[in-house]
Amino acid sequence: MTQELTVGFVGLGGMGRAMAGNLVRAGHPVRVWNRSPGPVAELVAQGAEAASDLAGALDADVLFSMLADDRAVQPLLDPTLLAQARPGLVHVNMATVSVDFARRAAAAHADHGLGYVAAPVLGRPTAAEAGALTILAAGTPELLDRVDPLLAVLGRRTWRLGAEPHLANAQKIAANYLIACAIGAMSEAAALVDAVGGTPSDLIGIVTDSILPGPVHTGYGAMVAERRYEPAGFRAVLGLKDVNLALTAGAEANVPLPLGSVLRDGLLDAVAHGDGDKDWAVLAEVARRHAGLA
Amino acid sequence: MTQELTVGFVGLGGMGRAMAGNLVRAGHPVRVWNRSPGPVAELVAQGAEAASDLAGALDADVLFSMLADDRAVQPLLDPTLLAQARPGLVHVNMATVSVDFARRAAAAHADHGLGYVAAPVLGRPTAAEAGALTILAAGTPELLDRVDPLLAVLGRRTWRLGAEPHLANAQKIAANYLIACAIGAMSEAAALVDAVGGTPSDLIGIVTDSILPGPVHTGYGAMVAERRYEPAGFRAVLGLKDVNLALTAGAEANVPLPLGSVLRDGLLDAVAHGDGDKDWAVLAEVARRHAGLA
Amino acid sequence: MTQELTVGFVGLGGMGRAMAGNLVRAGHPVRVWNRSPGPVAELVAQGAEAASDLAGALDADVLFSMLADDRAVQPLLDPTLLAQARPGLVHVNMATVSVDFARRAAAAHADHGLGYVAAPVLGRPTAAEAGALTILAAGTPELLDRVDPLLAVLGRRTWRLGAEPHLANAQKIAANYLIACAIGAMSEAAALVDAVGGTPSDLIGIVTDSILPGPVHTGYGAMVAERRYEPAGFRAVLGLKDVNLALTAGAEANVPLPLGSVLRDGLLDAVAHGDGDKDWAVLAEVARRHAGLA
Amino acid sequence: MTQELTVGFVGLGGMGRAMAGNLVRAGHPVRVWNRSPGPVAELVAQGAEAASDLAGALDADVLFSMLADDRAVQPLLDPTLLAQARPGLVHVNMATVSVDFARRAAAAHADHGLGYVAAPVLGRPTAAEAGALTILAAGTPELLDRVDPLLAVLGRRTWRLGAEPHLANAQKIAANYLIACAIGAMSEAAALVDAVGGTPSDLIGIVTDSILPGPVHTGYGAMVAERRYEPAGFRAVLGLKDVNLALTAGAEANVPLPLGSVLRDGLLDAVAHGDGDKDWAVLAEVARRHAGLA
């Protein structure tokens, strides 16, 4: 049944490439489009079809997009483009965009009688390759039902977070906020332990072995403890973007987020010191510098 | 061999009672002392001996103390008392005390030729009963070797964190700091999700199912999502005490802890609103009030 | 000499009306334009000429604009409009706009061979009426020389802050930041004094009589002490806008402004509680609420 | 009438020396005591009498003390000492002590039937020499009436802030808090102006010429603008002490002071970088470092 769905896929970065590949392998006709041609060729080699232009990717039953941020997705809201979409198209936007963008995107698609689903994900490229992403989806139940078989190819679990797409983005922004706070907390705590003569890696070992297990504390904790921020899993400039997404969503809803302001200041400090392209665990160096330890 | 060690135990609250009981059941002679008599009788019924006074508990090879805070442990540093201790006594202080107190306690014991080990724990009374605590120990290797069999009765794992006792306290304070930050982060994120129309329990479900599993996010996360802060697992006033332990240790070592200042202000706000005896997850209400949601 | 300069004036709010009137009284031909017609009629009665449209105000030697914010000034950057300006026009923008807007505005005028001077002011409408504003000006020396006689009509003193217009806006944003911090500080200090049983108006009396004289501490201090926030001298929503101007300028230059984050959170809290239209000294109520005093 | 009052004076530092000298010159018999002998000899040369010990200074109608902090004043609460005081003695404590200390001091004096007045001051040694201090006094009206003629010798104005002595200390702590916030605000604003290419001294010039005149903005503002922190008017370590007095008083009364937490972190950062003995305007360097400017 789902075999009959034609899929467009826009945005073949580290995440999108893996996801599109999984859709191809699941037997779906997939029309891919990407700003740079390399990944397109790669996907075509796996069985995908290259769209001749962006509009070509919208000649589909379901359009997936996996792009960097609001600005990168903005062209997909162009009225001229949307007017060329296959009637009945459902756009599944998997990017981490702002709450405000999600609202505008939903409205733009509705204006053209098209469906819009927000489905940002938790998980790294390895999880994307394994089809093991955690998918945070929001949209009308009818649309979610329609795309559910495709999402099942991409992820281990799909959460349904409401009928309004922006609710999925809010949850994704909130989840990233929890990651940011965990990194900031480990950064400060490690500086404290170090300053009194203790060993930060013991702290990370203790908590990940007991009260705070899981990939965030294990992965970023190791970076904090070892003061190793390259290669970056997630760059500080992107972390700053994500913290700003939370602060902006908060400001629009009159929700002060004081922990987020501390993290934002720390990430600005990191960027000011030339560490914007290092992993955002480089917050640990900011905490150290403020304590005269760096 | 460890059977031959006579144990004193001071502080039979929810944690101490369970721990002393485990030592009794492991076959050690245990002399217990407590401010209020009820728990003493309970332990005697299990096979412990009641010390006639505080000094009686120090007539032992190893003294365990499990008290509330610096102030409660202070009487154990009294020179007159320490002078009455059995020669060679090792005091294992399992309380969450300040770094500064740990330094003073180690010095006071050294003045009387006594041993001092800091061994604060991670775990609730249920873990204490099950002998499944995580024990953060610091002291000279010789002393740690000596008390190790006893600690093995109390915990699932003993971490050795250095020769200076205060290092264990610093790690414990840092671990609690991570818990506090996690609660604060969930509180703010839940307020954000709620304010934009989403469901906080979804957020907690998503992250505990994926990136942030474990008891801190599961347990406190449920309280935050359900806005249920009683019965308290850990009261806000105690949480404030613990955050202050971190801030004070930081101040002594010139380590700014800006996230901790935010948490401290939030907990003061909670106490000012009469919520000091609720669980410290009541930080979620503070975040809600600041957003006009409460 | 300056008599020969024809002046356009756009934006006849509380400030602009008074300023345009002063230019008329100083003998300059003034062509006024405003979104709502009332103030135009008022100025015409004083001797000004009504421009038939916005472009009409640009048929002048010098264009003054006194508008609310970036968004309100944006139409003045319209290329079609700028193409209609009298050759050699110098636009003196007296609004508190963002550093980024100032850069874009300077570039837009340069594209059309027009001059651009940033000249935001310190002072209330009463100071505008008295021609006693403090003017923060930036632009090329040649342009500043040209408009100087006109600025002398409007203000008691003109500061020259550099050749690049955005520098004046940065100084204005920074000055407003100092005001915001002073209000926030008085708010917290007053809550502290009150909570221990003292009298906040004594605090304000003491400091304005000695170490912190001047209109900021006297004026806003009285509001804080008396808990009287209406009529608003400067509304909380505008204060939030100004603090955000500082935070945004800081973010663009990688300058963390942690005091500003605290103020921003406080103002969001005020708005969330329905106090957005009260004077921004309502920060005092936020501080009181957090202390359980309100 | 006041001529008949015998005065004791303890604490002959930069401030106390000048104040005691003024009392001598006003014709009062003054018995001075100081930890180091140099200033005693100096005062004796001016006409004072040297007390043979601390108790000798309490053989007086009114005892003034001008000491550094709680710890330095603590010996004056010694019951044995207070028992030796001349009956009816009124102790006027002019130090910046904690609210809690003031409460304990008042109680200790009451226990011995002695009077206690808190009278901390605003002003530098030059103001002390000129008898131009601002005096913040609290105590029963009867006691304040009694010491008023002496305070009139020392200051330009005496504020009566309540019958409970700690109220004067709370006001002094709050006033210093306003100074600290002003310095912190100028530090951040100067970093912002500098980072965008402007001139910090212009900012200070603008605001002190208009909205923020007075010694705090003029004096500390010059230090911030010129990045000159020596000689210190008030050392960073003392500033940290004063901010902590506010935070502690706030914590005791459940008053969050988030701006104060930012200042505290900044001052810890300064101390961690070896700047503890520089003027607390060195906060400007902290702001610069965080922005990558230093």
TrEMBL record, chains A, B, C, D:
InterPro entries: 3-OH-isobutyrate_DH-rel_CS, 6-PGluconate_DH-like_C_sf, 6PGD_dom2, 6PGDH_NADP-bd, HIBADH-like_NADP-bd, HIBADH-related, HIBADH-related_NP60_sf, NAD(P)-bd_dom_sf. One of its GO terms (biological process) is organic acid catabolic process. Keywords: NAD, Oxidoreductase. GO terms for molecular function: NAD binding; NADP binding; oxidoreductase activity. The active site is at residue 172. SUPFAM superfamilies: 6-phosphogluconate dehydrogenase C-terminal domain-like, NAD(P)-binding Rossmann-fold domains. It comes from the Bacteria. Residues 169-284 form the 3-hydroxyisobutyrate dehydrogenase-like NAD-binding domain. Gene3D superfamilies: N-(1-d-carboxylethyl)-l-norvaline Dehydrogenase, domain 2 (1.10.1040.10), NAD(P)-binding Rossmann-like Domain (3.40.50.720). Pfam families: NAD_binding_11, NAD_binding_2. The keyword Magnesium does not apply. Residues 6-158 form the 6-phosphogluconate dehydrogenase NADP-binding domain. Belongs to the HIBADH-related family. This is NAD(P)-dependent oxidoreductase.
